[in-house]
Amino acid sequence: MIKNNFEVSIIVNGSPVKEYFKDGNFYVEGKVGSEYSIKIKNNCYRGILAIATVDGLSVIDGSPASYNSRGYIINGFSSISIDGWRKGDNDVAKFYFSESSDSYVERSNKNGQNKGVIGVAIFYEKENCDYIKLYSIPADYKISNDNGTGPFFGEFTTFGSSIPNTTSGFTYLDCEYTKTSTSSLVNQSVNYCYSNRSIGTGWGDNKYSPSSSIPFSAEKFVASEFVFFYNTRENLIKMGIDLSSQPQYINLPNPFPSEYCRPPVK
Questions:
Q1: Per-residue pLDDT reduced to its tens digit, 136-158
Q2: According to the 3-state scheme, what is the secondary structure of the chain?
């Protein structure tokens, strides 16, 4: 899924899974036992904070997710893959589609009402007039091309006040900013149909994933938000989703569809 300057995909076996659009929502098929990761690409020069949630829980600390949850920092023209629930600075427990009773949220005795949803909220880094960044897009960086070679990041030079120069990918923040909203990333009133939320996301095998925690100054308002609902193939079909069709996207009006005026055709 692509919104504004960002791309989010659910990756299984190295490839993005097929996305289905119905009644204003995006759905993906979850096959029980399959491991997955969340791929986030920042196609903008500005750094961002990406707060990722699974089944209504923060992927970093396992608590109910909100816009104040900790998130991953992604430099300009960079990408990361979030592979699991963070266990510590160096390890995660891999995500995998599980039976409902085996999901992390159920096994943790937490509220499972948001089971079956993956969300990512993105906040731009707060711009500071005391410094200027000069960016160049890496020659091998391509928008909408997931070649699996890992994150790329733009070169930059900083003038004036110093700021952290962090490696994009496995870095998350300890909150030093205030957001105006403390609501869940997934609005409870969202209009979607779940005939049976029979699957969730489990606590999988250990994976080495080094990280560090640094301060990050984020803007107060969400720049973009991504929501994927997932369910079994059987239940997606019951919901009326044609799994053989190509994804159908909303064709929203575009205020800048062309560069110049064209003569009328009639």
A1: 556 566 555 433 333 322 323 22
A2: CEECCEEEEEEECCEECCCEEECCEEEEECCCCCEEEEEEEECCCCCEEEEEEECCEECCCCCECCCCCCCEEECCCEEEEECEEECCCCEEEEEEEEEHHHCHHHHCCCCCCCCCEEEEEEEEECCCCCCCEEEECCCCCCCCCCCCCCCCCCEEEECCCCCCCCCCCCEEECCCCCCCCCCCCCCCCCCCCCCCCCEEEEEEEEEECCCEEECCCECCCCCEEEEEEEECHHHHHHCCCCCCCCCCCCCCCCCCCCCCCCCCCC
CA distance 221 to 214: 20
Q: Is the pLDDT of residue 182 over 70?
A: no
The fraction of the chain above a pLDDT of 90, given in percent, is 53
Residue 172 has pLDDT above 60, yes or no: no
Q: For residues 104 and 64, is the Cβ–Cβ distance under 8 A?
A: no
β-strand partners of 230: 28
pLDDT of 122 > 60? The answer is yes
**Model pTM above 0.85:** no
Q: For 64-77, what is each residue's pLDDT tens digit? A: 999 999 999 999 99
C-beta atoms surrounding 62 within 10 Å: 18
Decide the pairing of beta strands 133-136 and 171-173: unpaired
